[in-house]
Write a structure and sequence with these properties.
Largest sheet: 4 strands, antiparallel
Radius of gyration: 21 Å
Number of domains: 1
Number of helices: 5
Structural class: alpha+beta
Helix content: 40-55%
Mean pLDDT: 82
Length: 105
């Protein structure tokens, strides 16, 4: 009638975990659309030779986290956001890649 003993135990365990897990760790607000709009509004793709901002992924994330909540995106999200807007990582040296952005007027 109420399922197996094992399924009832699993349901209880899930309820306990949900009850004891802090709310902020369960709720992740998707900031990707806002970050995409922000970058699109303020920057266009640049090159190693012509850029207003030249940063590694971690450097660019640090800048974005001054505006948006810390850790709201990761390097994979950043790559996807920038690639969708036509950015390509620029190779400066053998093992150094940068995102080059031109500030919009």
């Amino acid at each position: 009638m109420f399922g197996t003993r094992k399924s009832r135990q699993s349901a209880c365990l899930v309820a306990i975990v949900n009850w004891t897990t802090p709310a902020h760790s369960k709720i992740m607000i998707d900031k990707i659309p806002q970050i995409t709009a922000f970058l699109k509004k303020h920057y266009t793709p640049g090159t190693i030779e012509k850029h207003s901002l030249k940063e590694t992924s971690s450097g660019l994330l640090s800048i974005l986290f001054d505006v948006f909540p810390m850790d709201c995106i990761d390097t994979d999200d950043l790559y996807n956001i920038l690639s969708a807007q036509g950015y390509e990582p620029q190779k400066a040296k053998v093992d150094e890649f940068y995102w080059c952005l031109l500030e919009n007027d």
